[in-house]
Structures are given as structure tokens and as C-alpha cells.
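Its record is retained below.
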Amino acid sequence: MSLISHQVGATAELLDGGATIPFIARYRKEVTGSLDETAITTIRNRLNQLRELDARRESIIKSLNERGQLTEELKHKIVQAETKAILEDIYLPYRPKRRTRATMAREKGLEPLAELIFSQDPAIDPSDEAKAFIDESKGIESAEAALAGAKDIIAEWVNEEQTARARIRELFSKKGSFRAKVVQGKETEGCKYENYFDWQEPVATAPSHRVLAMRRGAREGFLRLQVTAPEEQALRILEGLFVKGRSVSSAQVKEAVLDSYKRLLSPSMETEILAATKQQADQEAIRVFAENLRQLLLAPPLGQKNVLAIDPGFRTGCKVVCLDRQSQLTHSDVIYPHRSEKLAASDVSKMTSLCERFDVEAIAIGNGTASRETEAFIRDITFSRDIPVIMVNESGASVYSASKIAREEFPNEDVTIRGAVSIGRRLMDPLAELVKIDPKSIGVGQYQHDVDQSLLKQRLDDVVISCVNSVGVEVNTASKQLLRYVSGLGPQLAQNIIDYRSESGPFESRQELKKVPRLGAKAFEQAVGFLRIRDAINPLDSSAVHPESYHIVDAMAADVGCSVAYLVKDKSLRMKVRLQDYVSNTVGLPTLNDIMQELAKPGRDPRKQFEMFSFAEAVKTIEDLEVGMRLPGIVTNITAFGVFVDIGVHHDGLVHISQLADHYVKDPADIVGVHQRVTVTVLDVDLARERISLSMKDGGT
């Protein structure tokens, strides 16, 4: 990503002024040079990192100053440190320490001996020099004991030397290896980690999913995980830095270097590399999760239709709800098509009656237990008109149904009815429904419980905010959960909008939003462009044109001799507009082009058109699968190692990354997206472990 200084400075100023990322990307293009959300997010994250680094820098300077250890040279080094690792290396020799072997040696007065040995003067015999430090009262009973203490001090110097740490860190990063071993006696209990019972691979190339898998196995007590580097190379590096010549003193320094590496440096670097690779693996896993979530949130909506939704079940029956075109619950019921033929016959009559009574335009069926059997039952019914039957991924519906949000929406309904409502609404508008569920419960992540939870939350919140604002929100029908993600709002202002709407009726214009309690000028500026008012008097109120630009559209309409409404309706009138005529010091062609695109399709939905989909009728359970079958499926999750596909048998199959295409694939997301329709070939079926291997090669997409 190529950025220039004025873009970074302008973006930082906007962010510090309280502007949101969607607002900056959409409405401040002239200020930032048309940076998109990705670039703006990168700037925000880097600013946060640098500010954290500066805070740590100031803390270190303060600590050194208070202890009288700060010199101008040391301060200069600290100020110039570009990374946290370098900063901590500089601070390490001055950091307050717990009692170490070197500390105790210093307390015994052995530092002068260490300095003599470390000078490596050929004329010095360390054993002779050590005799002068024998002092039984201090616990130094022999020359050998004095030498041992002196070498402990030298080992600590080696460990704390900045260049040495940097070189060994580089060695561990470039040539280090992960080594995983099974904990003896845990072979059976930890069988899911069998691949790592005796595993080794380079740190530099280990993929994120394997790093996280090994760490999880170690955390659960089934694996021992180490990071090692070539010891001979490490010692050559250190001896090159610290050992001078071949004197007797040099031999003592060499021994201290070996001890330092094994006892101090190597464990320290192992800890650092484990932390660094964990951070990298977290970032990759979070990236995959975020991209999957984005695709799921932006899945095509069915739109405003009367929907009958079914949450399938065998023993307890299938919960049925009817939703109107505004997604409001109008009826709930239960059918038992899988208990007996007599009940099934009665349920056929009930279903045809409900579809007529509520003018049902689509039937949504959750893809959980009994879904394919319920689908077959519904498809066998002869309705008075053609009603599409659509399978809906119900991941997270049970989480929603038991949530506080669901209880507030449906205080008089039980969890089963709420779950069925969620299935129906997810078909009508996936984004509006999924924002009510914790993204981690939607089922599109990879090791989401193992990664940095604060980083994961921020990234997923960024995705939800981006999706909500790119689609836009109808302010008169949106839920509180949807409104809270609108740029500049949040939970309290979202609730205030709901309360105002309930008390005063639907908003008739965007300007009326200024009457909402606590929705001040800043929040209005940030939010209003992303809020829509359908059928408003001013047609721009249902568009993404910001009110701050209404005067520009008014001028365009006046210049071509029509009203704004006619300018929106008539393409030939818009063709007469010369954008260059409206360029000013604050408004440039990027904004003007956005305005013209919006006038062509006011409030356009960026999501794709909904397409009908159905699974293979003859395949309903995993037992029905045969190797070689070609089946339709829907991508449910993308990971670093492959893609999971729902083929309608209650168990998602895995398309390993090697089976995604006939050519090499680095990132599965380059090939497919979540919710994408694909065709797959069955490679293998493991009934015992309920695992299905699939391929998308040879035109599978």
C-alpha cells in the first residue's frame, strides 16, 4: 500500500477529530486523496501502535530518570528505537531484576573479576586472579567458585547486549523450527492432535492454522511445543561478538557464552518467537474470519417478502412462523410431519392453509436436524401457486433465541419460536439479522477462541460497521442492533432514535433526526449519510448523498431546468450536467462522481441479487454419499487450509486447499467466497468420524 505523508496526516487529523472510517472513506475523499476503508483502517491501527510505543518509551524514560540511570546517550537510543523489541532490548540491562545468579555474584563483589576476564588480556590468568576474591564469609570458598560467579555475570552481559539479541532473534526467525511432541501417556486422549505427536517445521513457513493447533495442543496438555534454532550457528554468532583470541580468559568467556545461550538467550528468544508467531497467526486467523464474516453479512437478501420459516425437528416437531414483508411475526405454530403418516397428512392441510392465509411468497427451512426430511415433506405439498423453498444456514440462531435481544423483541414467545423467526429474517435480510448475534457464534471462524480477543473484537466490529454502512440503514424500520453500527451512533443514540420513532411516528426527513435527544451536530454529520428514509419528500433523503451536498444537487437541477426529483428519474437530464462546473475548494470530482452514481440509483444496495438454490434431492444423509458423486453445495466457511461446503447432509465437507483448483492456490479466499454456490466431487467419506472429503477441481466452481 503506497501512502504519502499528507494523506496520512489528513486521515489522522480526521480520526482524532472523531470521524469514523466509513464516513472518511465515503465523504472526505478530497481530504484523504480517495483512500478506501482498508487504507484508513491501516493508518488507524499503525497510529495506535506508534502511540503505544511512545507511551512505553515515555514510561521507560521516566523509570530511568527516577533511578538516576538516564544519560543523554541512552535517551537518544530510546527515542530512536523503531520497534518495541529494540526498545526492550535497550532497556533490558537497566530493568529492575529479580535476584539472578549474576545479581548474587555482584553482591559477592565478583564484578571486577568478571571485567578482568571479559577484557581477555592474554597476560591475565583468570585462576590466579580469582584467588584474590576467595572469601568464605561471602560464600566464595575457592577460586573455582569465584570464576563461576564471574562467568554468571558475563553470561548476563551477553544476554543483555543489544546486537547479540538482534542477531539471535534473526536466527530464530529465519532458521528456527517448531518441534512438537506428544506428552507421554496422552496419546489416546489427545488423538485429535495425532498429526503433531512428532512434528517439526520451520518457523518462517509454518502456516497460521498449524501454529494455533500446536499451541492449543500444548495448552490442553497433550503436546510439548518448543522453538529451537541451530545451536552451532548461534554460538558462532555469539563467539564472533564476544570471544577475542585464544587466551585462557577467552576460553572462560567462551564458556560463559555457551551458558548464556543455553540458560538465558535461547529460552528468551523461544518465548519471543512463540509470542511473535502467535501474533502473526492471530492476525491471519482474524483476517480469514473477518473476510468470511464480511461475505456472510453481505450475502444476497431475499428482500421484503411474506415468509414462512421452519425450524426443523424430529421429536419436538417443526416450529413454524409467518413473517410479513416488514419481518414482523404474524403467526406461530408447530407441525409433526416426521412422527406418523396421520399427523403428516394433517400438517399438509395446515401448511397449505397458512400459505394462503398469510400470502406466503417463500418458505425458509433451517439447515439443522431434520432439515432435509422437512424440505422433502414441504416440496411434496401441492400449493395453489409456486412457492420457492430455501434452505437457510441457521448457525447462531439458537444463540440469538436465548439472548437478551431476542427476549426484548419477543418477550411472550419461547426460544423455539424466536429461533424460527431468526431463520426467516436471515433469509429476508442476512445483515439485519446477523448483527444481533455475536460474530464468534456464526460459525465462520478459524481458532477464534484461541486468538487475541480484543484484536478479534475490533476487527469484527470494523467489518460489521463497514457492511452496515456500505448497505445503508432504513431509519424507520431498523432495529436498535442495526442502528448501533451506523457511523457516529452507538447503542445509546440507536435507542434514542427508536424511542423518538415510537413516540413521534416515522421520520419524514433526515433533518428531523436533529430532534432526537443527544444526537448532536457531530453525530448527525457522521450518521446521516448512511441513514435512509424511504418515500421521503426530498428524494435525496433515501439516497447516500450527504445533506452537506444537497445544495450541489439543487444547483445541478436548477442549471438543467428541472426539480431534483426529475433529475433522479431522467437519465437524459443527468447527462446534461457538467461536473467540472461544480468543483470547488472543498468539493472535487470524487465526491461529484459519487453523487451522480447515487442519483442514477438512489439508495442502491451493493449486495448481489438473490439466487435460488437447492441441494441434490437424492442425497439427504452422509450414508447416501458415494465416492465420485458430483453435488451442488454452498460454501459455509473458509480457512487457511481449505473450504467447508454444505452439501445438505448435516455435515459440511472439506475441500482441502490442494483440491480447490487445478493450479496452485495460496489463499482459498482467492477462489471462493462464503455463501458462494459451488459444485463439488466426493473424494472420500469417513462414516466413523463423520468426515467428508471433497474436490472442486475440473470446473467445480
